[in-house]
Specification:
The complex is a heterodimer of chains A (about 170) and B (about 450). With about 170 residues, chain A is mainly α. Chain A has a domain of about 80 residues. Chain A has 6 helices and no strands. The longest helix of chain A is centred in the first third of the chain and has 38 residues. Chain B is an alpha+beta fold and about 450 residues long. Chain B has 2 domains: about 250 residues, no CATH class; about 140 residues, Sulfite Oxidase, Chain A, domain 2 (Alpha-Beta Complex). Chain B contains 8 helices and 10 strands. In chain B, strand 7 and strand 8 form a beta hairpin. Chain B is elongated and about 85 Å long. Classes of the chains: A mainly alpha (about 170), B alpha+beta (about 450). Chains A and B meet through helix 1, helix 2, helix 3, helix 4 and helix 5 of A and helix 2, helix 3, helix 4 and helix 5 of B.
Amino acid sequence: MRRFRYEYGAGPLHLLVAIAGLAVAGYGLYRALELVPPVSFLAWFVGGIVGHDFILLPIYSGIGLAAWAIARLGLVDAPRVAALNHVRVPAAISGLIFVVWFPLILGLGGATFEGATGRTTDGYLERWLAITAGLFAVSAVLYAVRVWRARRSRAGAGRRAPSPPSSSSA
Amino acid sequence: MREASAVSEPARRPPLPFPAKPPPGPFRRDFWRSPLRGPWLASFLSSALLPLIVICAITGFISHAAYDPDLGQNAIVGPGGIGFDLYGFNWPTNPAWLYAFTQGLHVVAGVAAIPILLAKLWAVIPQFFEWPPVRSVAHMVDRLGLALLVGGSVFVFLTGVQNIGLWYPWPFNFVPAHYYAAFVFLGALALHVATKLPTVRRSFRERGVIAPLREDLQHTRPEPPSTEPPGEHSSAPTSPAAPTISRRGLLATVGAGSAAVGIIAAGQAIGGPFRSLAVLAPHGPGQGTGPNDFQINKTAASVGIGPADVGPSWQLTVRGASEMALSREDLLRLAQSTQSLPIACVEGWSTTQDWTGVPLAELARLVGAEGSDSLFVESLQQSGAFNQTTLNAGQIADPRSLLALKVNGADLSLDHGFPARLIVPALPGVHNTKWVDTMTFRTA
């Protein structure tokens, strides 16, 4: 048993589970390649990994890095970071909606879409942009509320320091 | 003390001869600066993702069974070979909204999973570039499984998204590709879950399950790499930057994305007052208010059917013990039944309307075919996989199953299947054949 672990790198249970799992996966690959033009299937399979790792991921990592770079410029204080997030969060939500509904937003279905539904893909882009605008508007309002509250509590603290609490600090 | 779980790595043979120093770039752990990454984040995201995947898998196989693939030419995941089909039972007709429910759940759970999946992939990306790339045979097996897992999951979700958006940029048939890629995905997932279970348990034990969600930005700290088992590298950063968002902020954003896309999908699955939420879905709001102004799948023009094909000379041929040819007037003279039934499509949307027509059981009686085991229905539509359907005995016998001639009190429009179409409770939408031409009752 120790010899097995030494050579294999894990216990025999790992090997058993691996055989079972990879057998199911292998069956899926076998049937898929049998029924679907293999080159196009593999192109989309591998292309999916590549597209995600080297296109999609750098895009949203880039947003994170840009955020960090701005923060690193000695501007890391609470209001600056909050402003950053009030831009990043609606952008991220809008982006996630885009990732799921992009075929309609970009009108990619074209003639197939019209043949199937009797409608065109007009209007989807406008609606997504409207949703995006709405998200940013809500975020802006929330940011304004936070800034207003922060100013109020700073003003309140300033007033309290030199004099007894005022009943009008509501 | 009990030996560590069978799937962890105790003393093992020395690693293969890769250079000890990783090449520059993403292979170095200090390349990855986000302070939020770590085993807890990956474990939490996975715990949210797995139930959605399980729901998708179960409802996906249910959808396959709903097509009654053992009847006639209903099987659409591919001919022959060692196919995996769920036989052994006839798809029921009760409740009428059964398929609308299971398939709506499939699509809603599927799209809601996508933001969580993307977040999970972001959280563990440092480990895609771990160095050395192979530490042992077991590790190599794991990484092969991961390639199949990432490839399979991206393929399954991407084809799903494209299908519900009615965009088909690939030259292959969606159904076998999506179905069998799911096997690749689920097989690799089983291996991944089994090998990562100890990591998940450990990270929840050390940091709590939801305790990190109570941290605000000022209290957000990176997960320490010092708690990793020797030789293993987690996704935790060795050179973390200052946090710009808390973990709960990140997870709330991902959750909001999931909710948003899920609500849009649910709007077209549930319909009624919720349809107005499905603003980015193909079958959301914006239909007219007339009796035929509800969602269409497959216009007549797209399958080459025009008014001339369905003129007064159209006759329905019904075969059983005897054979009859019925014009539309003949059909309208038979006893009519009106049923409120949904049509539910595999893309996860449905619509409920009032259908009027001749019960299938009545047509069976007319040709002496009561008690038939199946009904083979053919359309005027010349090409395509769904110009025919085979119904099971329960679907024929259900009094709500109709050959519909009218909808919402008006004649069917051409796009909705004029002069006659099937409507059967709980039957997947595409099997409710339009522009019916012949019906053949069969006994086993």
